[in-house]
């Protein structure tokens, strides 16, 4: 917070006293006090709908009392689903394996062996993403023994 306050004060000084260029250099605007300048900045920042909260960058950050440890930890990577996680008796049982279209922004890697394509389809029973299109049918290959 001190860093932000320092930036505001420096901006106010530059606005009031200028850079030493022009006819207003060295003269104060007089009517625009620091309090009013800070108020205008606060009004502007509060009007922004998607303003992100910035944490102060200090040498020894002290977590706030209302913050949990989970909020301070970096995000973890999603665990990649593996084809080996499905039991063979379920995978090859031949019943109730239906393709489900998973809508989303990002497609997911196919879990069939030796396929590195991306797909929006997954098996309803195995819960494994598999390619299913006119050029590849990993869905059928995955559920049939070789």
What does this structure look like?
- The chain is mainly alpha-helical and about 150 residues long.
- It has 2 domains: about 1-50; about 85-145, no CATH class.
- The chain has helices spanning about 1-15, 35-45, 70, 90, 140-145; strands at about 100, 110, 120, 120-125.
- β2 (about 110) and β3 (about 120) form a beta hairpin.
- The longest helix is centred in the first third of the chain and has 16 residues, at about 1-15.
- It starts with a helix and ends with a helix.
Task: Give a quick rundown of the structure.
The protein is mainly α and 146 residues long. The protein has helices spanning 2-17, 34-47, 69-72, 88-91, 138-143, and strands at 99-101, 108-109, 118-119, 121-123. A two-stranded antiparallel sheet has the order 1-4. A two-stranded antiparallel ribbon has the order 2-3.
């Amino acid at each position: 917070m001190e860093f932000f306050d320092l930036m505001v004060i420096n901006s106010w000084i530059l606005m009031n006293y200028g850079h030493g260029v022009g006819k207003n250099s060295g003269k104060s605007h007089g009517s625009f006090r620091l309090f009013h300048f800070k108020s205008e900045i606060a009004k502007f920042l509060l009007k922004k709908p998607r303003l992100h909260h910035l944490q102060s960058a200090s040498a020894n950050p002290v977590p706030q009392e209302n913050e949990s440890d989970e909020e301070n930890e970096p995000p973890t990577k999603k665990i990649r689903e593996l084809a080996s996680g499905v039991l063979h008796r379920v995978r090859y049982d031949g019943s109730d394996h239906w393709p489900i279209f998973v809508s989303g922004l990002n497609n997911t890697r196919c879990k069939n062996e030796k396929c590195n394509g991306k797909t929006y389809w997954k098996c309803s029973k195995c819960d494994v993403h598999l390619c299913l299109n006119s050029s590849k049918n990993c869905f059928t290959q995955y559920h049939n023994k070789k």
